[in-house]
Design goal:
With 110 residues, the chain is an alpha+beta fold. Helices cover 24% and strands 41% of the residues. The chain contains 3 helices and 6 strands, in the order ααββββββα. Strands 1-2-3-6-5-4 form a 6-stranded antiparallel beta barrel. The longest helix has 10 residues. The protein is globular. The relative contact order is 0.17.
């Protein structure tokens, strides 16, 4: 059995980047977002994966803040802020979206 330290040391520098790029679609999608208990507003997603998305907002929420996203014809999706920098945040879906829903969003908003 491999201990955690040995496993960590065996990871290559590109592994994290490869994981992040897996299934990532560079997009420019308009959607509605609600940050915490604030009101709904329009915004744009810069990229999308089945596990999350990157969004641009003027008043960026802190890490861990719940966000809700709506696309036309798709149920509201719940996510949380994982990181933020200036006016951009990376969010992960609480429940990853299915590959069918992911492909539907990409096909609908092209």
């Amino acid at each position: 059995m491999q201990d955690a330290g040995m496993y960590h040391d065996s990871l290559k520098a590109g592994d994290d980047e490869q994981r992040r790029d897996n299934g990532r679609a560079q997009v420019d999608l308009q959607c509605e977002i609600r940050v915490g208990t604030r009101c709904w507003r329009k915004t744009r997603l810069a990229d999308l994966t089945p596990g999350g998305f990157q969004v641009t907002l003027l008043d960026m929420p802190t890490r861990g803040t719940p966000v809700y996203v709506r696309f036309g014809g798709i149920q509201m999706l719940q996510a949380e802020v994982c990181w933020s920098k200036m006016d951009t945040a990376g969010c992960r879906f609480i429940t990853p979206i299915s590959s069918y829903v992911f492909e539907h969003i990409l096909a609908t908003y092209k």
